[in-house]
Structure prediction request, 386 residues.
Amino acid sequence: MTSKPLPRPSRSSAAIRHWLQRNLFNGWFNSLLTIGLLILIGWTATNLIRWATTQAQWIVITTNLRLILVGRYPVDQLWRVWTVLAIVLGLIGFWVSKGRGQKAKDRKIEEQERAGAEEQGSQEDFDIASPSSPVFLLSRLHPITLLPLAFLLILWLLGGGLGLPRVGTNLWGGLLLTLVVAIISTVLAFPLGVLLALGRQSSLPVVQGFSTLYIELMRGLPLIGILFMAQMMLPLVLPGQPNIDRVVRAIAGLVLFNAAYLAESVRGGLQSIPRGQTEAARALGFNLPLTLYLIILPQALRIAIPAIVGQFISLFKDTSLLALFALLELTGIARSILAQPQFLGRYAEVYLFVGLLYWAFCYTLSMLSRRLESSGGSNHSRHTTR
Prediction:
């Protein structure tokens, strides 16, 4: 009788062993350090799981889940919040499908170019949909063009008016208020930051001086001070001393502060673009706005994507400071839950759940940043090759 030969290890397992030996067990010190860290991680994970399953009282989360998510938003009007969520998810899905479709189309065009079948490919693309059909119009629509309409629709749904009952911002709270403040502040701070970056690069002394003064002034002040001035002093400096909503004041403070940091991130991207590209655009007859819009800004923003998204993540976490001004966003709603008599002292459960919410959204933004970097880099390399 002959014994069967033992199966040879797969390439994947061999590669894993090689990676472990090279990175974690490549010496006696690194081996001891790896084993010690694994023991520490295992001990921490075991204790955390034991606490979460036997000692933690998660009833504080289940009882106040609606309060954490939407604050004191009226129960009979929660369908508006779900509609807003559906609109946001629809925009994200449309953007993802649009990106995948564009990648598939670009890959097909590259294959046709290598095969020398450009005319056949263009005829096939023309036959996909007629220019008058809704499918053709939807395929040519960019997700960014839908943002202004979606933004106005979301504000109308949440705030009411024009046929819907009004829901004051004093009833907004929790994750809903955090997301609304963060998104609106991001949308308003980004174009202001781009304008400030362009102004600091301007050759006009007045524009450059004003932009530089604003950026350095805002970067030299703490955010809590700017939020305090926005809450207390903004109604005093405006004509007529209008009764401005507290949420609007908070958004104004976040926009003014983050625009300065975004301007520096964009300016770093602008400085990395060779001056020869601007000179070449002028030689081709492009004026300054077209040069900025078509040539300079797309490259500068692509280079500055990590810094810009990092600032957006910082802005999202900075909304927790609004709890100091009696705005019940995530941190403020957590403090109000801990003030309930039946849940006194449940700090670990409440703040752990709130921290997980912050982490989930920040990690999503990080993934979006990596996706934008990869798609931007592939598009740049493809256009450069062509």
Notes: The radius of gyration is 27 Å. Residues 347-385 form the longest helix (39 residues).
